[in-house]
From TrEMBL:
It catalyses: hydrogencarbonate + NH4(+) + ATP = carbamoyl phosphate + ADP + H2O + H(+). InterPro entries: AceGlu_kinase-like_sf (IPR036393), Asp/Glu/Uridylate_kinase (IPR001048), Carb_kinase (IPR003964). Belongs to the carbamate kinase family. Keywords: Arginine metabolism, Kinase, Transferase. Pathway: Metabolic intermediate metabolism; carbamoyl phosphate degradation; CO(2) and NH(3) from carbamoyl phosphate: step 1/1. One of its GO terms (cellular component) is cytosol. It comes from the Bacteria. It comes from Ligilactobacillus salitolerans. GO terms for molecular function: carbamate kinase activity. GO terms for biological process: L-arginine deiminase pathway. This is Carbamate kinase. Residues 3-292 form the Aspartate/glutamate/uridylate kinase domain.
Amino acid sequence: MAKVVVALGGNAILSENPSAKAQKQAVSQTAKELVNFVKNGDQLIITHGNGPQVGNLLLQQSSADSPENPAMPLDTCGAMTQGSIGYWFQNAMREELLKNGIDKDVMTIITQTVVSGDDPAFHDPSKPIGPFYQESQVETVKQEHPDWQLMEDAGRGYRRVVPSPKPLQINEYRAIQQVVDAGIVPIVSGGGGIPVIKKGDQLVGTEAVIDKDFSASKIAQLINADKLIILTSAGGVYYNFGKQEQAELKKVGVPEIQEHIDAVEFSKGSMMPKVQAAVDFVRQTGNPAVIGDLKDAKEIIAGTQGTTIVNENVQTEYRKSKVLSS
Ligand SMILES: Nc1ncnc2c1ncn2[C@@H]1O[C@H](COP(=O)(O)OP(=O)(O)O)[C@@H](O)[C@H]1O
Ligand SMILES: NC(=O)OP(=O)(O)O
């Protein structure tokens, strides 16, 4: 039975409508895809993002902030989103498994991710959270929230950005391992895990949001997963993405794709962390990672879709003809 860690991006939870009802519906659709891994006989470990949700929650908190009902800090909001999104996934997965005649427990684990207080990310916010703003709204948003930093997010508009330190350790990984060994489907490290700094025996929450792709890679390494699968809204990883000569990778070795990382050829706010997280997992474990589209879960299991990254120096394979330019 292969141990497969599946990391889910924003579109797996939130489409255009941020209501609980709409997000639950999106999660139910996602569960229909995820159940394919269990049907395939894999031990599934689910992890997910929280960028839109935690940003929206912070906005709700600040709009009601008062001495009697103070706004909760970012680490606590991260924990709240782990709970709410975990609850949606837990029920959606349970329902989908039962529909397929599989009686398996699903369990959300509140997960804390240890980071360094000296991580340079604390002085360079880069993680987009919450809603998108048009360029014309930026000045007003800055006036309303003078403590915010805003950044353009991969051509999709402007968003608030917060520090995103790198995960050093997943505090609950041994418990997660036991849950996995028991055959339960765990939902872990939601939103990258609650960022905490170790101070002696204490874990102290800090104001940050960890990239879920990096924490997915970390937990996959710690539990010695056979595969890391990062599901997003792109068919796979492209070289020259968005350009006429773009080419989708079918299979690539770490030595080659590392050269493209070093040349900063992937977008920092979107594909770069996924590729870096995948490469880190492959290097540390020798096992493959796949980056692909959520709607292609069945094909990814069959090996016919997505970009597979392997440790060896293989001949790079492309999904379509390499050169599209005329
Ligand atoms: N080189 C690339 N290859 C494929 N997709 C890319 C690339 N660069 C940027 N993208 C964009 O990144 C998106 C995935 O990133 P993002 O939306 O941040 O992920 P998430 O699903 O984790 O929220 C894709 O849908 C695609 O539009
Ligand atoms: N925490 C995190 O990486 O969230 P998103 O994937 O939603 O950006």
